[in-house]
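Dear colleague,

Thank you for sharing your sequence with our group. We've completed the structure prediction you requested, and as agreed, I am returning the results in plain text so they can be pasted directly into your records. Please verify that the sequence below matches your submission; if there's any discrepancy, let me know and we will rerun it promptly.
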Amino acid sequence: MFRILVIFGIICTMVLISCSKDVVGNQDTFNTKINFISPAADSECSIGDTIKISAVITSDVSMHGYEILIHNKTKKDIIPLKNKHTHGKEILINENWVVNVSAESVIEIEIIAAIDHLGNQISAVKKVKCF
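Please find the predicted structure tokens below.
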């Protein structure tokens, strides 16, 4: 039993220290940018189409990942598409979403950039109309 507790303690310690945190005084969210490549603003699509979601997130500090949310503004629900924990000053996003709404809908694709582990983040949105 003691051996299991020691192994559990080692694993917990490794998880806690595995993600290095940049020590940055006065974290500046204005230097982090999300450049949406696709889809184009106010695109139109049909149910069953595949939408390519491409973007580049850049910052002057090492960021901590991103999340992609699909907001169905017509039904007023949110579909989580991707949540990725990754590090870097430049993060490339290339994801696909198959339009699976049940009726004509206005969709907002939101990319949220996690700047740090303190909760600082920015987001960008593209609207798509689905028939």
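Summary note from our side: The chain has a mean pLDDT of 85.

Kind regards,
the structure core
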